[in-house]
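Long-time lurker. I teach an intro course on protein structure, and each term I like to show students one example going from raw sequence to a predicted 3D structure in token notation. This year I'd like something fresh instead of my usual example. Would anyone be willing to generate the tokens for the chain below so I can use it in lecture? Attribution to the forum is fine with me.
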Amino acid sequence: MIGSLAARYKNWRRKKVMDALVAPLPGCNFAFIGIGQHSLDNLYPVLLRLGVPVRYIYSRQLPLAQQAARLFPACTGVNDLSAILQDDTIKGVFICTKNEYQLPLVKTCLEQGKYVFVEKPGVTNYAGWEELTAHRHANRCMIAFNKRFNPVNAQFQKDFNKAFSYQARYVTGPYPEGNAVMELFCHPVDNVLQLFGPVKEYYFTVQQVNGGVQVQLLLQHARVTGTMELSTCYAWSSFADQLQCVTPARHVAIDYPGTFVVQELGYRPGGIPVDKILKRTGRAQVSNATGAVPVAANNSIWQHGYYQEVACFVEAVQQGKSPLEATPDTFEGTFRLLEAVSQGLGK
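-- Reply from a regular --
Happy to contribute to a lecture. Here you go:
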């Protein structure tokens, strides 16, 4: 009996995975621009898992493009963008390159009628965001801020809606190869704006210490106040991306991508701390995805939201949807705040 039930469950689970594969549509293919570490480690595996028909891989170095193209069936490596732009069967283009190259590539692809998935941040400053948002086909562009698809965020959305206070912390080591504000701090800034709503008022301090950037923010939203520490003054070995929020009923602490602790605050008649008097610790819910069963839902690619964002884009392209999710116009508050911090640093 148990063996039969287990077999039926495994068949159902296998069918669910196979049904998620992208069904090929005639004349609806994809191309990928970029062969960096993020592409290789996170985005390519998702495309392969979903069975997305990637027909071109572009790199300025043709041998690299040809080598990467061998990962995908019927894919060609190219170093000439016109091959992608002039192919009418290419409906969607993934762009994952250095930040300074992104906006020109996005605009070029949009002008050719392609849907575009561009890795965050997509622009280098607020003026670039304005330029992209004003494009006539901007609603066909998706800026891939993966935390918008993070399953832990979705799990605790009700708590975020009830929160009255939060603390966010994003700390890592120096980032001399790029713009830390636009390329690193964009992650947590967009995250808190998505979870807690637009910012009404904000105050911040900025410092540059020992090759790093230290930012302290106080943010006032419509119903919640929060603080943020954003820093590249630590070490890459001590990277942390954390969020804590408090509601009248409980305290939620998230260590991204998928670890969390939930502490129930308990009954407090008239503000009396019953837990202190009776020495109760309260119920706690703990989850650590990194130590869980090795299935898709506990994989870091899933926990970070990469799988969901790619699947969302591919489905939209196949169905001809517009606007897409995470279109440029939904990031105004994010880039406005990042611009203010950048100006505070004199950039």
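Some talking points for your students: The chain has two domains: 2-148+309-330, 151-293. The CA atoms of residues 63 and 77 lie 8 Å apart.
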